[in-house]
Amino acid sequence: MMMNTNKMPAAIALLSLLALSGCGSDSDSSSDPQRPIADTDKVHESLEVAVTPKSELEGTINVYLGHWYPCSDLHPEMCTQDADLNDLPAIGVHGDENDPNWLTYGRGNPNGTYNKEHNRLTARPAAGADDYSMKISAAELKRFAAESVRSDLFIPRQYSALDVVLYVSSIRDDFEVTLGEFNEEMNTYEFTTSFDANNDGDYDDEGDYKDSKNWYASMLYSGGDAKKSNGQPTLEPFYDRMDELWVKEGMHIRFQPESSIMTARRQQTLKAEVARFHAAGDKVVLPELRVDFGDGRGPQVVAQNVEVKPHNLRPDVFQKGVITVLDVALTAHDEYGVKFGVTFWPTIATNADVGSYAVTAIDEQRAHGFYGWTLYRGEDFTSNDFFYHPNKEWPVAKDVQTDTEFGRVCEFLRDDDGNLNQAAAQECIDNWFNLFGGKNTHRMADTVPMVMPQQYVMFEWFANMENAWEMAHRNYGPDGQFPIYDIERAVAPLDENHFGWKVADCAQCHSLDNIHLNGDSPTLPEQSEPYYCASCHGSNGAPVGHGEEARCFWCHSEDKLMPNHGEASQKMYFDDTECSGVTKQKKIDIGGYYGPCADAVKTASPDFHREVKDFADNSTFYRLLPAEKRITYGNNDWRTSESFPDPYSCMTCHPNQ
User: Fold this and answer.
1) What is the pLDDT of residue 74?
2) Lowest mean pLDDT among 210-224, 355-369, 375-389, 420-434
């Protein structure tokens, strides 16, 4: 029997911004799908925008079969035939080994070319074997199964990662996934995997590749135009249940053979959750909600033994009553006095379809720009399992044993004296050396069901993303760089009788150089931008804001683009955009930029344009589309619009109330 529970955990999501932009709108605020929420239609007090999420699985899903290994002296089968191992940079450095800013996991030959075997299993496939990277059609997946194997969690036509690999099994002759019984002790379906590594048409002589219980998925949701794999083609390993990982369009799933100890470690965490569930009387009771406010105190326990209540914010994905990690925050807000602010990210400026709620404020400490809240959750005993330090030469067992910067990694692989032998060190590196994994993966809190309570959920204030992204434009509402006008003191506010009611760009109808020439107004400033007009004429029908103070363009870019906002809503090629502001590379002061933004990005952010990828097209760093093809808007991370500067013009006409 399947345990009838509707709950699970979440992971990391860098949770920051979202704000209405510019003055006025051509849409009625009462019907805008993303407007400041009114008391009459609040689903929950903490929500700051009224939205109706409508996520549907369409397009394709990227699936890779096999464990990725770097080209190295330990894995020479992953190297191209013309690669000289003696010439390769040390593990931890790709590209120019003398460039300290170019760091990623794995060895690769200097010219950045990779063998197809990068995406294959450790057993070398026979010549002519099929490639193990696929694009799975959502339409075909829907034809394969009308509903998920976890129909108790997902509504019809929403699926899990386990559903995807079952479909892949149905279309391949060399790969077979067999669904087993529902395991009550772990609250998940068991399955076995067989792989015909030598392509002889059967699984009889495949050894560990026959009926294995050690295959599992790693994942990453789509990053849009910034194709992102967070540093490793391995994607992000996780300890969650595969039949609870929600599948979205454009996501990446790597299904791979793993260490038996990795399997045991994951099962240990799942069993701990189930035991905790039963100990609480078959209820989802979270032992600790922690918050690290970034003030030096470290994580603070702000609520204990939280019996989490479902709020049903994602009826487009989950069945009614399914608890998500976001419900932890909403329950704590209601019952423990921990005040959360929650907004919504639509399709953002990178063209990534996020479509999720995001925590943007905790106890009045509000995200702004690249300052925001990061989410962790899991068991304390696995909190340090995944580790990452790219500026090291790996794998050398003695480094794992003695390098204090790595701490006591892979404790569960050490002998009685606390040492790792060479084999254990390599197993540690192959399975747990990852920038993201376990407690820390890129998943939004409202999209992760909490089937069983983990030991903790923790929100951490994160304030380093400005430097990590190399942004030049770092505007923040109250910083004084541009004025924010007080429209409550407007002397001649417009009303609905104004022929341009709710049109933000005054210049569409009025010549800003030829107004107030009859002495009926105080002297205008030399440049009268549209939002300055609001200081005398009010907001012209613009809806109020919803709390944000920076980077409004991040969310108001694709499906939430503002009409009639002049340059703020104007599309342009990135290569033609003139830069403003100052950026700093990790160790080098670059200075100001006043040329094409594309040149600034290429100079200040080489990680965006210098990449190494494996055969499955897994980028090893952020990779933007070629600048001349990339579309941006009047406001972005490298440029501030003169006529509608973000966020100052936004906060003038859409004041946060």
Assistant:
1) 57
2) 420-434
Other C-beta atoms within 10 Å of 425: how many?
23
Mean pLDDT of 382-404: 66
Burial of 17-53, coded b for 16+ CB within 10 Å and e otherwise, reads: bbbbbbbbbeeebeebebbbbeeeeeebebbbbbbeb
Number of Cβ within 10 Å of residue 339's Cβ equals 15
Torsion of CA 528, 533, 539, 544, to 10 degrees: 40
Report whether 613 contacts 621 (CB < 8 A): no
Reference 21, options 531, 433, 462, 630; nearest CA is: 531
Rounded to whole angstroms, the Cα distance separating 409 from 400 reads 7
Region 267-280 average pLDDT: 98
Burial 361-384 (b: 16+ CB within 10 A, else e): bbeebbbbbbbbbbbbbbbeebbe
Over the stretch 614-627, which tens digit does the pLDDT of each residue have? 333 433 334 455 66
Element (H, E) at 171: helix 161-171
Helix (H, G, I), strand (E, B) or coil at 91: coil
Tens digit of pLDDT for each residue in 177-202?
999 999 999 999 999 999 987 778 88
Say if residue 32's pLDDT is above 80.
Answer: no
User: Is residue 420 a contact partner of residue 414, using CB atoms and an 8 Å limit?
Assistant: yes
For residues 265, 269, 275, 281, the Cα torsion angle rounded to the nearest 10 degrees is -170
What's the pLDDT at 390?
Answer: 57
**By the 8 A CB rule, do 166 and 179 touch?**
yes
Which stretch of DSSP H or E encloses residue 602?
Answer: helix 597-604
CB of 468 within 8 A of CB of 103?
A: no
Separation between Cα atoms, residue 255 and residue 235, nearest integer Å: 10
CA distance 325 to 212: 31
pLDDT-derived band at 602, boundaries 50, 70, 90: low
From first CA to last CA, the distance across the chain in angstroms is 51
174 in Cβ contact with 196 (< 8 Å): yes
What is the rounded distance in angstroms from the CA atom of residue 269 to the CA atom of residue 597?
Answer: 47
Q: Above 70 in pLDDT, residue 498?
A: yes
DSSP 167-225: HHHHH-SSEEEEEEEEETTTTEEEEEEEE-TT-SS-STT-GGGSSBS-EEEEEE---TT
Residue type for position 494 = L
Q: Give the SS3 label for residue 633.
A: strand
What does DSSP say about strands 252-257 and 60-65: parallel, antiparallel, or unpaired? parallel
Cα dihedral value 298, 302, 303, 308, nearest 10:
-90
CA distance 508 to 566: 8
pLDDT single digits (tens) 290-306:
999 999 999 999 999 99
Query: Are β-strands 285-292 and 300-307 bridged in parallel, bridged antiparallel, or unpaired?
Result: antiparallel
Q: What does R_g of the chain's alpha carbons equal in angstroms?
A: 26
Q: Could you give the 3-state DSSP secondary structure of residue 407?
A: coil
pTM attached to this predicted model: 0.83
**For the ranges 256-265, 547-556, 627-636, the one whose mean pLDDT is highest:** 256-265
